[in-house]
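On clarity, I found the account of how folds are encoded harder to follow than it need be. Since the whole study asks how a given chain folds, the encoding of that fold should be made plain. For the editor and my fellow referees, an illustration may be useful. An entry of this sort, consisting of the sequence and the corresponding backbone structure tokens, reads as follows:

:::
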Amino acid sequence: MNKQENYRLGMAAYRGRRYKQAIELLAPLASDTSDRQRQLLCRYYLGQAHYQMGVRRFEEQRFTEAARHFQAAASLNSSGGGFARFLVACHVGTQRFDLAARELEALLREEPTSVELRIKLALALYQQGRRLDAVTTLREGLCQQTDQAELHYQLGVMLAAEDDLFEAERCFEKALLFDEQHAGAYERLAQIYAVSERFDRAASYLRKAHELNPFNARVAQQISVLTQAYKTVDPENPLTIKAPDEMPELDAAAMDRLKQIVAEEPDFVEAFLLLPESDVDQEIFSTLAATLELALENHPEFADLHCHCGAVYRRMGRRLEAIEHTERAVEINPKYVRALVQLAELYGQTDQWAMGVERLEQAVQAGGDYPDVHLLLGRLYEAGGQTDRARRAFERARQLDDGRRAAGEDLAAMAR
């Protein structure tokens, strides 16, 4: 069985809730680096399948197996978020923390009250090994803005990493004081309570963390381990793990980062369009379509974004939106050959052959004198009953590609 077939069957198994089979089929593809985009998708859905298997094993009280599946899910998707957040986390970039810290320090001088910049700077310093500077950066921020829960939380994380659990516990409690919905703070406090054998409080805080973020496999794994080891913590109110919905709601922050990625690298989307069709296409491409629409709100003048958005809508079967965006791409750049060909294909699919021909002739004039263009042109002419023009287009396609077989077959069919 080839990789494409494994991919299709694995995705179909996931959609059919046959999670064990999905894991068997997707696991080899998730470690295959020869196709980066397919690997990303396989890693995401493999993580989801492991999570669902973990829930099933937990319900069966097979806690060791449940913890193993949750651990696998967490290693594949540590954020526990939806597809958009996963793509952001997997986006590969060069991480020069020294250069990042230098730039962030300059930005923070201009915006000293920016919590986001301060945290990014602290994390960059920590990654460099400048841990004292990182902690100092966060403490300075808290001197100015004592009510910022995320500053307290990040400081607690760093202190806990340095085994200063007493001070870390205080930081997490302060984070919850200012943001009682902070799932991360509940999770970290639960870990501290478990270490100090305060298992009842650990269970209570893990329950709250899971309630706030039911997609976090790391929290589910901790619940499984705690339940297995300390079944008598609260017999009247046992810990439970609820299976999440198929897809979590789109995360606004993740979508914002993802739109930056596709605006800077439109071919990021193109790689997904080259993947074979699967049972989860609608989920994948609805996320990408939403991302592109967000990016276009900031960059309506980017022809590439409109063209890619049209291609995504076409993949989803939404041809009217596909035509609208691709026409906009051509309006911005009348010599955009790829968009012109895409439009012709869309018009051909909607039986508007004359409009398709017009766009292909425009593509040829713009420099798209390619065999594929003439082959498509010939087929559109043929659909419109213009056999002489169709024959000339097929001949041109065959000339350009030195006896192109497809063009020859079309010519032979016309001769019959």
About this structure: Residues 97-229 form a domain with the Serine Threonine Protein Phosphatase 5, Tetratricopeptide repeat fold (CATH 1.25.40.10). Residues 36-59 form the longest helix (24 residues). The two ends are 39 Å apart (CA to CA). The chain has three domains: 3-82, 97-229, 252-415.
